[in-house]
Amino acid sequence: MPSSPKIQKEAILKTAFDLLLREGYASINIKTVAAELGCSTQPISRQFGSMEGFRKELLVYCLTQLKSFFSVKGEKVSEIVTGIAKGYINLAFDFPNLYKYLYMMKHEEEKMSALLNLLRSENYERILFMLKSEYGMEEKEAKEYLNNLNYYVHGVASYVAIGYVDASKKEIMKRVQKVNEGLLKNRKDL
Question: Which domain holds residue 18?
Fold first, then answer.
């Protein structure tokens, strides 16, 4: 029976995640993660097979962590989308390297599918349903509204992540709420 690895996969991924948060995705390779763990590269190679395998599992780990940023609470659609927008803004302010890795890097098609699946969960369908019932929107109009709000929020969050915005979270969220209100008020122009 082969011996169990001394360094578990979860510990390796957590270490890589912490390194990504602190120093950015460019700092992630088997040698830097091994140095953080205080071991050789062999345990990492043994656990993941290759750097490609390691990077794929790191993405899954990052997506799992990402879910904790989003609150899908509220009785009205505006409360829910504001909560989700707040998650992106908080992520960009508090963990800019994670935001840049997930949303500002070109990813392989497989990675993009994982990101889209996270966003197009049952909450997406629930929000579409609520837009139709609360605002009388057709599905196409509801999707267009969500796309426009998404573009705005991600644009602002990207500016925050690269340090281009000199405003507080509170100020940014006030702007997001105003844009959201404007999109809902003038939705025929979507």
Answer: 9-64
